[in-house]
Amino acid sequence: MTLYILNGPNLNRLGKREPEIYGHTTLAEVEAWSRDAAGDLSVEFRQTNAEHQLIDWIHEAIEGSARGIIINPAGLTFTSVPIMDALKMFSGPIIELHISNIHQREAVYHNSLMSKVATAVIAGLGPRGYPTAVRAMRDLIGEAV
């Protein structure tokens, strides 16, 4: 049983990119926190700057042993119908995750396509939203200890 944690464009720059919005925590630190929160649940933690790669990983989750998907599609949240369509095919719970509160930001960030298919949305908790999302996912899939 595997939990997929998928990250979209520019999240590899976490800790360096707009620290006043995203903080100083790196993606490697976020991954470590996520794995700690997952306990004995297997984690596939991935990041890409390519839309098609996120779609391929969602397809992999659909075909494999994935129990849940946590996805931070970053800027693709607001533009990618193909990612939304891929997520629709996943039968398990999906948590859409954002480091910043997208609803407090510029209007371009207010309409998430992913929210329409996500089980839950977590936004605005900063990088600590990741372990929060992992714990919530464990509850959703019945793996909480």
From TrEMBL:
Q: What class of enzyme is it?
A: lyase
Q: Name one GO molecular function term.
A: 3-dehydroquinate dehydratase activity
Question: Which sites are catalytic?
Answer: 22, 98
The cross-references to InterPro entries, in alphabetical order and at most eight, read: DHquinase_II (IPR001874), DHquinase_II_CS (IPR018509), DHquinase_II_sf (IPR036441)
The catalytic activity, as recorded, is:
3-dehydroquinate = 3-dehydroshikimate + H2O
Q: Where is this site: Transition state stabilizer?
A: 17
**Could you say which EC number(s) this protein's record lists?**
4.2.1.10
What domain of life does the native source organism fall in? Bacteria
Q: Name one Pfam family in it.
A: DHquinase_II
Q: Has keyword Oxidoreductase?
A: no
NCBIfam families on file:
PRK05395.1-2 (NF003805), PRK05395.1-3 (NF003806), PRK05395.1-4 (NF003807)
Official protein name in the record: 3-dehydroquinate dehydratase
Q: Which organism is this entry from? A: Cereibacter changlensis JA139
